[in-house]
Amino acid sequence: MTGDEASADDGPTTVPVTLYTRENCSLCVVARETIESVAADLDPVTVDIDEIDVDTDPELADEYGERVPYVLVDGHPAFKYEVDERDLRLKLLAAT
To answer: Sorted alphabetically, which Pfam families does this protein's record hold (predicted)?
Structure first.
């Protein structure tokens, strides 16, 4: 990576967000909507959401069980059950 590539002027920075969910999870729907809403308001940041249904993998189902939604921001645990808009904004900006 050159110095020019590291410049914030080169365009948006993509931050990976992993959202662990399960079917019929109303909190999961709200969490995704919150992530999408906050991401839409952050011009220098693009969010790449990877939504994973824990029920499709027995190991994930064992690990997360009913503890969804569970959100990782840039690979780091960030939220469980509810996503706070302000905290998410700060975490996304910090990850850039």
So the answer is: Glrx-like
